[in-house]
Amino acid sequence: MNLPFAENYKIKMVEPIYRSTREQRVQWIADANYNLFNLSSDKVFIDLLTDSGTGAMSDRQWAAIMTGDESYAGSSSYYHLKEKIQTIFGFEHFLPTHQGRAAENVLFSVLLKEGDLVPGNSHFDTTKGHIEYRKAKAIDCTIDEAFDTDSTFPFKGNVDLAKLEKVFKLQPQKNIPAMIMTITCNSSGGQPVSMANLKAVKEMATEYGVPVIFDSARFAENAWFIQQREEGYSTKTIKEIVKEMFTYADAMTMSSKKDGAVNIGGFMAMRNIDWYDKASTFNIMYEGFVTYGGMAGRDMNALAVGLDEVTTNDFLDTRIKQVQYLGNKLMEYGIPIQQPIGGHAVFVDAKKFLPYVPKEEYIAQTLAIILYLEAGVRGVEVGTLLADRDPETNDNRYPKLEFLRLAIPRRTYSNNHMDVVAAGLKNIFEIRDEIRTGLLIRKEAAIMRHFTVLLEKVKS
């Protein structure tokens, strides 16, 4: 018989997690005002809130931490990371930051002004937040297939070139400082962008004089999907595919807490020396000196090793196949998810799961709360709460997709844990017709409200 698939690592250390009762969870989530971000981690059994900074580092990364250089300026750890970024991505200039949204803050401080348009493929929440905070506008140019969760189109993160060109023609280039490609595209379900689309977008953007920036948090997973799904790439290594991908970018931002396989850190990298010089000033103001930028030397060392490890099939095969394991279990149970299964998370289609909960009562957040009560599993809403209010009308924005995202940390949980998640959702799915009410907002922030929002249950 064929040998079954197994993880390509062994466990050296374990961390206990507490198995709570439903009665405890009912009280805890009420005390947290029905916001899963407000729960302390000891009240969560399986934590799929995010894959950002929550994974387990390798022995090589921990060894690299011990040789970190904590010099304020000119740290050797900075130069190790700089060399690795240049080798993997091909960018000469880079600035470290404490995480990805900090890189966005610094770079957008250089590029964006009020009234600008920034097209892209389903901007992530922090990206859109930084754009709208500067009174600019993010425009979604994702292909229509991304919004059909039953479609198995292999590259649902792709940009629709006709939509993009329409934006380019809408205003002069001076009002479109950049377009952003998110790889993989988190908001559309962890969906990849094809190499052909990256190339075509870059060619069109160059024609209109618009720079291309990659939001690169899950770049390695994107490369894996290109290798597995796109003609002409099956024999290429992940590093070869990554190198080509970034030839179609003028700059990148990176949350290293995802495909850097570290617990903290980020960076931006670019070809334009003028951008680098201006960004350096903002980096010093917001983050730290240009050779540490809010990162400890030990963390830069761990990141350099992490970037090398994640750009291999040894790492990516194990990581993405666990995500697929959970997704396939849910589909076996008839649970509607975004297909094909994404790279870092399984996205449950909450509208189809809970068809009787009104959209005004936050369908995906309602499902997330019920899953926590059922199984002690913490996921996250990617739907109306995350979409925020329209900055002009102050009305709720109702996205085409309402997702419960189950983001799986790297090298952290076993497939037994995935079985618990699947069983919890199956139990809820069997009584879904009985769930008719959701949640209402008691208090919310003006921007990126989903992190701190206070909610209450709708009385039935």
UniProtKB/TrEMBL annotation:
<keyword id="KW-0456">Lyase</keyword>
<dbReference type="Pfam" id="PF01212">
    <property type="entry name" value="Beta_elim_lyase"/>
</dbReference>
<dbReference type="InterPro" id="IPR015424">
    <property type="entry name" value="PyrdxlP-dep_Trfase"/>
</dbReference>
<dbReference type="InterPro" id="IPR015421">
    <property type="entry name" value="PyrdxlP-dep_Trfase_major"/>
</dbReference>
<dbReference type="InterPro" id="IPR015422">
    <property type="entry name" value="PyrdxlP-dep_Trfase_small"/>
</dbReference>
<keyword id="KW-0663">Pyridoxal phosphate</keyword>
<protein>
    <submittedName>
        <fullName>Tryptophanase</fullName>
    </submittedName>
</protein>
<comment type="similarity">
    <text>Belongs to the beta-eliminating lyase family.</text>
</comment>
<dbReference type="GO" id="GO:0009072">
    <property type="term" value="P:aromatic amino acid metabolic process"/>
</dbReference>
<dbReference type="GO" id="GO:0016830">
    <property type="term" value="F:carbon-carbon lyase activity"/>
</dbReference>
<feature type="modified residue" description="N6-(pyridoxal phosphate)lysine">
    <location>
        <position position="258"/>
    </location>
</feature>
<dbReference type="InterPro" id="IPR011166">
    <property type="entry name" value="Beta-eliminating_lyase"/>
</dbReference>
<dbReference type="InterPro" id="IPR001597">
    <property type="entry name" value="ArAA_b-elim_lyase/Thr_aldolase"/>
</dbReference>
<feature type="domain" description="Aromatic amino acid beta-eliminating lyase/threonine aldolase">
    <location>
        <begin position="47"/>
        <end position="423"/>
    </location>
</feature>
